[in-house]
Known about the structure:
By secondary structure, the chain is an alpha/beta fold. It is 42% helix and 17% strand. It contains 15 helices and 14 strands. The strands form three sheets. It has a seven-stranded parallel beta sheet with strand order 3-2-1-4-5-6-7, with helices on both faces. The chain has a five-stranded parallel beta sheet with strand order 12-11-10-13-14, sandwiched between helices. Strand 1, helix 2 and strand 2 (68-74) form a beta-alpha-beta unit. Helix 4 runs parallel beside helix 5 (146-157) and helix 9 crosses helix 14 (388-394). It is globular, with a radius of gyration of 29 Å.
Amino acid sequence: MSAHKEWSSFDLILTPAFIVFVVISVKISRYLKRLPKRRSVAILVLGDVGRSPRMMYHAESFAKLGFRTYLIGYKGSKPVPSLISLPNVHLHYLPEPPTFFGKVAFGLSAFVKIAYQTFSILYTLTISITYPPEFIVVQNPPSIPTLALVWLVGWVRASKVIIDWHNLGHSILALKLGRVHPFVMIAKRFEEIFGRSAYAHLFVTQAMRDYLVDDWKLTGKMAVLYDRPPSHFHRCLPPEVHELFVRLGPSLKDPALTDFLPKPNVPYSTEFTMTSWPSSEFRNSLQYSQINMPKLREDRAALLVSSTSWTPDEDFDILLEALALYEERARAVNNSRQSSPMEKLPKIWMVITGKGPLQTTYMSRVAKLQEQWAFVRCSGLWLEAEDYPLLLGSADLGICLHASSSALDLPMKVVDMFGCGLPVCALDFKWYVTLW
C-alpha cells in the first residue's frame, strides 16, 4: 500500500509536468516551423513598382545581401534591370482595382477599393508567399489599409515590420478634402495607431523623424535614410543622347512637334544630335572611313524635364503660366530687329514624364495653349525605367513643382536630377539643404 501511494504521489507530480512539457514542445515546434530557413524579406508598395525607386533600391540591397526578396506592388513601368536580373528577387504583382470604382461617389469607392486591396494584400502576404518572411518593409503613404495589414501579418507570421516614412498619408488626403474633414481625421488617427509601433522606422528627412517621435511617440529602431541617386545616373555625352533619341523617335510623332523640332534622319541624326563625315583629306583613309561621332545640334531646342505623378501636391498652373510668359518674351526678343544673335532665345521643349489623375486635364489645356505658341511645346512622355536617367542626363533644365503636403518630406526627383548633373528650378523647400 505504501509503495502504491508513493507511485500515486509521483503520478500527481509527473502528469502536470508532462502536460507542461508537451505544451512547451508544441509551442517551440510551431515557432521553429515559422522561422525562415533562409533570410527573406517582403517589400510592399501600394503603387507602380517600376515608379517606386526607393523601394526598388531597398529590394536590390536586400537581395545583394543574400535575402530572398519578394517585391509586391502594382504592375506598370518595368523595374530597373539591375533589380530584376538578381536571382533572389521575386515580383508579386497585385491585381488592379476595377476601373468602375472611380465612377461612383468618393466615400463608396474608397470603401470598396480598400476592401479589394485588403483581400489582395492579405492573399499575397499569407498565401502567395508561402514561407513567413523575416522582415516586411512597407512604404507609407498610402497608410490605409497597408499599415494595419502588415501589422496583422507581422503578428500572425512572426515577421518584423519596417515602415519607410516617405510622407504622411492623411496630409495628402487633406489636399483633396481639407484638414478638418472627418475622413482626414479618421485617416490621421489610423496612421498614428498602426504606424506607432514597428521593429524599425526609416525616414526621408530628419524633420519627419523628429515630428513623428515627438508627436506620435514612435517605438522601435529608427534611422534617417536620405535619398541618393544610383551610381549609374550621370550627365550624358552626345553619343548617349543620340542613342536615346534614336530609340525614342517612334514616340515623338505628336503633330505639335512635327515642324517644331529639327527634322531627324535616323540613324544619322535625331532631333538633338547629328553626325558628320570626316574632312575630304581623311575620307579615303581606312582609319577614318566611318562617320564622325554624334554631336549636339546647334539648332536643337532647349530640353526641359519634369517628372510627376500628376497629383494635387504639384501645382502645374505655375508651369503653364511660366511657359506662356516665355512664349511672350521669346516672340518679343526674336522678332525684334534690334536683337543680336546672342540675345535671341531658343525654342524650348518641356517634357513631362509620369502618369496620374490630373494628367488628362492639364495636357488638354496645354494642347489648346500651344496652338498659338511658336517657341514653346509641352509633351507628356512615358519612359522605361532605364531611359529615365538618360533623359535627365540629356536635358538642359529640370523642373520640380513639388509642394509638400506635410512640409516634412523630400522629393526624390530632385535627387535624381542632381545625380545626372542637371540644374533644377524648384519651389522653395527648406529641406533641400540636406542634398548639398
